[in-house]
Amino acid sequence: MGTPRETRDDQTVEVIDRLEAEYPDSTISLRYSNRLELLIAVILSAQCTDERVNAETEHLFETYQSPEDYANAPQEELAEALNSINFYNNKAGYIREACELIVEEHDGEVPDTMDELTELPGVGRKTANVVLQHGHDVVEGIVVDTHVQRLTRRLGITEEERPEAIEQDLLDIVPEGYWVQFTHLLIDHGRATCTARNPDCESCVLADICPSEKGDGDIDLASGDPW
Ligand code: SF4
Does residue 150's CB lie within 6 angstroms of at least one atom of ligand 1? Predict the structure, then answer.
């Protein structure tokens, strides 16, 4: 078990500093070339790896290009085009309905406010934050995905459990200039080292400040259970 910095603010800044050194090129890993593609890629990425989404969207984005293309596509045809993605039937439905709304109520443009985005089917606060940050350069929140949720708890940065509550907590702690990068750094570390089932604490650059670092009888603060 490592010893965290005295305050959560100090712990957060230390984590950012070390992960920035470790992952200097950290950024979004979904591939897209416009806002609509970004929105669709993020909807597809729920409970699915970015790698799988990128493999699938490579041909999807060639076949469908405008919101009208998706809105007018038969449900079965679109679902078939997505069939290697988890929950592809539901996601095909969300994408068709979201694109219908984009055509009917937003002149074919992906909206640029949290309220309008979260009115689209299949779009929660996490998806909306990604689209605002990377599609519109609007940063009004912190994206809390499964990696951010797990690592912030393991590292003693938050004790909240739900993503929405974690986000609110983080907004008070993470320096505003890092609201976007914080997510990417934790995702990179969650993929490379601090994985869900078997984190590699021995080679972790945060081990000495991580209260979940594996040792005799220590606890994984993400789950609250002993390792
Ligand atoms: S890999 Fe281990 S030491 Fe590193 S952040 Fe995760 S739980 Fe902590």
Answer: no
